[in-house]
């Protein structure tokens, strides 16, 4: 399957943290063609293993990208049928007012997010952002009909389909981090053309946006020698300084910071230079807020790396990435994996 088509399939689907099971069939079907074994654990993590060429005691590399998206949840139904809701993950309330949504009840139900119109607001309210608790979802039904179809706890997603921008850029919801899933899918296709000693586990993790629980349990099960999180980084926009962001179209960000193993990071940059793959440096002095954080502190510790795909407008329904960056991320991962062997692993893990 073409990687962009696969990404569109994922982004147009639903899968709020804790409700990711709707993505399983698409991911399993895509990875099944290029991997040797796929398992799904009790939390819903999808682990696709591509075996290496060595017969025994293979190096184990875990590549993780999370499939969950931020979303909303039904918390109450008013007497007039309006739905009150809360957030799952880090939604900025300023970005959701006036949005079209899908309430995932007994069936998928279209609705809109509304609030008091500006004409009827008090003067003191005009300069204040409207709080999420003051918004409602209107699906057009009476309370009785709503209660037939909707239950407390049902998930809600923004109604959005992927759009092509100019050139190689796209806009969609849930590119954080389904762009990462697309990158590891492109990587496994690249690896199918290469010889590599390491056993590689491509893991589509759950619940990164709320707890990183998926990466925690899957890395505990796999117990890899190296863990790599593929996520998104803050794409440069006019209000962001270059030191706080990474440019679209100029390759993935290689993270530098306390969450990152320094020798492995150096090796990653060397591979990028060797194969003329563009990359950027991304500074993260503390925990990265990615699955690498969970991997790093699992068991007795797993040496970890982060590759970040530049993304604009993070945690909105119009996130933007460049497909070129996804391709470069995949190639860098593939060549890095191919460079790891039983013979050189110990030296790479030394400080």
Automatic annotation (TrEMBL):
Keywords: Aminopeptidase, Hydrolase, Metal-binding, Protease. The keyword Hydrolase applies. Pfam families: Peptidase_M42. Gene3D superfamilies: Peptidase M42, domain 2, Zn peptidases. Belongs to the peptidase M42 family. This is M42 family metallopeptidase. It comes from Tissierella carlieri.
């Amino acid at each position: 399957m073409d990687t962009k088509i696969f990404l569109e399939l994922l982004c147009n689907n639903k899968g709020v943290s804790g409700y990711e099971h709707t993505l399983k069939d698409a991911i399993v079907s895509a990875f099944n063609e290029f991997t040797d074994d796929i398992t799904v654990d009790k939390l819903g993590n999808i682990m696709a293993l591509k075996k290496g060429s060595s017969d025994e005691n293979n190096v184990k590399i875990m590549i993780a990208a999370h499939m969950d998206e931020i979303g909303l949840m039904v918390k109450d139904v008013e007497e007039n049928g309006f739905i009150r809701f809360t957030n799952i993950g880090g939604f900025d309330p300023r970005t959701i007012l006036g949005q079209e949504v899908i309430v995932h009840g007994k069936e998928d139900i279209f609705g809109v997010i509304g609030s008091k119109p500006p004409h009827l607001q008090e003067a003191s309210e005009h300069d204040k952002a409207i709080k999420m608790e003051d918004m409602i979802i209107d699906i057009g039904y009476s309370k009785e009909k709503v209660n037939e179809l909707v239950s407390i706890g049902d998930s809600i997603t923004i109604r959005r389909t992927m759009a092509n921008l100019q050139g190689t850029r796209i806009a969609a919801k849930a590119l954080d981090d389904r762009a990462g899933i697309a990158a590891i899918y492109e990587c496994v296709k690249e690896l199918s053309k290469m010889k590599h000693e390491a056993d590689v586990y491509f893991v589509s993790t759950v619940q990164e946006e709320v707890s990183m629980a998926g990466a925690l349990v899957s890395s505990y099960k796999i117990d890899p020698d190296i863990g790599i999180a593929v996520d998104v980084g803050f794409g440069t926009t006019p209000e962001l300084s270059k030191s706080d962001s990474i440019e679209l179209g100029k390759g993935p960000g290689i993270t530098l910071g306390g969450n990152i193993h320094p020798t492995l990071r150096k090796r990653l940059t060397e591979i990028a230079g060797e194969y003329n793959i563009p990359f950027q440096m991304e500074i993260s002095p503390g925990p990265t807020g990615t699955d690498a954080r969970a991997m790093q502190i699992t068991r007795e510790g797993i040496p970890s790396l982060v590759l970040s795909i530049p993304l604009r407008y993070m945690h909105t329904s119009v996130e933007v990435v460049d497909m070129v960056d996804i391709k470069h991320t995949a190639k860098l991962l593939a060549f890095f994996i191919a460079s790891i062997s039983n013979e050189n692993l110990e030296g790479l893990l030394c400080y």
